[in-house]
Design a protein that fits this description.
The chain is of the alpha+beta class and 429 residues long. 54% of the residues lie in helices and 15% in strands.
Length: 429
C-alpha cells in the first residue's frame, strides 16, 4: 500500500467507519421494530415493510450478514488505521491509531447509530433494507457456511433450533399491551378489551341470577294469577314450572304469549305450554367465553345453570355475558353496583348484602375472597357460620366489616373499611 496516498487511506478509513455504522444501525433498527405494526403495514401493501418482513423471516441469516459485514469492515478499518498511524507518527502511531480508532468506532459506529436506530427503528430499518436485501443474496454462501457451523455447535450443546421463541403474545402479555396502549385506545375501549380477556376466568356461576331471584310461573296456580303474572312481568322470558322450580318445563317468550293472546280468542294453559321453548341447561362452572359461543351455536339467549346433580342454581342470559364486556345495560332490571355501594368520606364503603363480591373487587381494586360465595351476604355467612346481629364486627383479609342491617335471615347492609394499603377506586361507579 506504499503507493496509496495517506489522504486516500484516511478517506477510505472514514468510509469504513460509516459502513460499520450502517451495519450497527441496521441490526438495532431491524431487531427493535414493532413486529405487529410491521405486519400491519406489510398487509396494507407497504413495499418497504414487505422487504423488511422478508428479511426478518430468517433472523439468523440477517444477524449473520450484519455480523460478517461489521467485522470485516472493522478489521479492515483497523489495518488502515495502523498504516496511517505509522506513516504519521512512526512506531508510536500504532498505539495512537488503536486508541483513536477505538474511540471513533465506539462513538460513531456503535453507540450513536444504535441509539438513533433504537429511537427511530422504522426510519432506519426501512431505507437500510434496500441495501441489506441484495447484500444478503451476494453474501449468501458465506452466510450459509456461518449458519451451518453455528447450528452444529448449538446441537453439540443440546440447543434445538426448533425451540426458538414464538412471536405470538400470551394472554398476560396481551393484557400488558392493552394496559400500555392508553395513547391509542380510549379508557372505555381498554376496559372492554380487558373484559374480553377475562371471560375465560369468569364462569356462569359468577354472573348468574341466583335461584331465589329467578322469576317463574307455577302453571298449577290459578289461571287468573298466571295471566296477571304474564302481563306484569318485567322480563322478556319467564320460566314455567310445576310446583317447584326444580320441575321446570319450559321457557316462555312473553312477546309470543302476548301475540297469542291477541290472535286467539281463547288463550289456555295448553296453548301457553305449546308456545314455550325447551329449556336450555348450562353446567355450572362453564367459562363465559365458552358459554357465549354455545349461546351463538345453539341460537339461545337464556339458560338455566344446573349443578352435577341437575339441581337448578341460577339463570344466565346473553345480556349478562355482554354486560361483562361493555358494562351494565340501562334496560337491566337488576340493581347496578352504583346502587348497591355508597363510598363514605372516611374511606369506608356501605355495601348491600346482595352486591357481587367480584364486581366490588373489580370496581375498588379490592381482594375480598370470592371463591366460596358470590355475594357479600354469602361471604359473611360462610365466615361467621350463623345469622349475625346488627353491630357485629368481622375482620376478613385485613378488611374491617361492620354489619349494619339484618332482615329475613339475610345480611342486608354492611360497612367495609379497607386496609390503608388497599388501592383506591378503579373506575367511576
Amino acid at each position: 500500500m506504499e503507493h496509496i496516498s495517506t489522504s486516500t487511506l484516511i478517506i477510505t478509513l472514514i468510509i469504513m467507519v460509516l459502513v460499520s455504522a450502517f451495519f450497527s444501525g441496521a441490526e438495532t433498527g431491524m431487531m427493535t421494530l414493532n413486529r405487529y405494526r410491521l405486519r400491519h403495514k406489510a398487509k396494507q401493501g407497504n413495499r418497504a415493510a414487505k422487504r423488511v418482513e422478508s428479511l426478518l423471516k430468517k433472523p439468523d441469516r440477517l444477524i449473520s450478514l450484519v455480523l460478517i459485514g461489521n467485522n470485516l469492515v472493522n478489521i479492515l478499518a483497523s489495518a488502515l488505521a495502523t498504516i496511517v498511524g505509522m506513516r504519521l507518527y512512526g512506531n508510536a502511531g500504532v498505539a495512537i491509531a488503536t486508541g483513536v480508532l477505538t474511540f471513533v468506532i465506539l462513538v460513531f459506529a456503535e453507540v450513536l447509530p444504535k441509539t438513533v436506530a433504537a429511537l427511530y427503528p422504522e426510519k432506519i430499518a426501512y431505507p437500510f433494507s434496500v441495501l441489506l436485501k441484495p447484500l444478503q443474496v451476494l453474501m449468501m454462501p458465506l452466510v450459509w457456511l456461518l449458519n451451518t457451523i453455528t447450528r452444529l455447535l448449538m446441537r453439540l450443546v443440546g440447543i434445538e433450533i426448533s425451540n426458538a421463541m414464538s412471536t405470538a403474545l400470551s394472554k398476560d402479555e396481551l393484557r400488558t399491551l392493552v394496559n400500555e396502549s392508553r395513547a391509542q385506545i380510549s379508557r372505555r375501549n381498554q376496559d372492554m378489551l380487558l373484559s374480553v380477556l377475562d371471560l375465560e376466568k369468569v364462569s356462569v356461576d359468577d354472573i348468574m341470577t341466583p335461584r331465589n331471584e329467578i322469576v317463574g310461573i307455577d302453571i298449577n296456580d290459578d289461571w287468573k294469577s298466571v295471566i296477571r303474572q304474564l302481563t306484569h312481568s318485567p322480563h322478556g322470558r319467564i320460566v314455567l314450572y310445576r310446583d317447584s322450580l326444580d320441575d321446570a318445563i319450559g321457557m316462555l317468550r312473553l312477546r309470543e304469549a302476548w301475540r297469542l293472546m291477541a290472535e286467539k280468542k281463547e288463550f289456555t294453559k295448553e296453548t301457553m305450554l305449546r308456545a314455550a321453548d325447551e329449556i336450555y341447561f348450562i353446567p355450572e362452572g362453564t367459562a363465559l367465553s365458552v358459554q357465549l359461543i354455545k349461546f351463538q351455536r345453539n341460537k339461545k339467549k337464556v339458560g338455566l345453570v344446573v349443578n352435577e346433580y341437575g339441581d337448578i342454581q341460577g339463570l344466565v342470559t346473553v345480556e349478562d355475558i355482554l354486560e361483562e364486556i361493555v358494562g351494565d345495560f340501562t334496560t337491566s332490571m337488576s340493581p347496578t353496583l352504583a346502587e348497591e355501594v355508597s363510598p363514605q368520606k372516611d374511606g369506608s364503603v356501605i355495601v348491600d348484602g346482595s352486591a357481587s363480591i367480584r364486581e366490588i373487587n373489580k370496581a375498588f381494586n379490592w381482594t375480598l375472597p370470592e371463591d366460596e360465595a358470590r355475594t357479600v351476604n354469602g361471604m359473611l355467612l360462610e365466615v361467621i357460620e350463623e345469622i349475625p346481629s346488627p353491630g357485629t364486627h368481622v375482620t376478613l383479609s385485613q378488611y374491617q366489616i361492620e354489619i349494619l342491617d339484618v332482615q329475613d335471615n339475610m345480611i342486608k347492609q354492611v360497612r367495609i373499611t379497607p386496609p390503608k394499603s388497599a388501592p383506591s377506586l378503579n373506575k367511576s361507579l
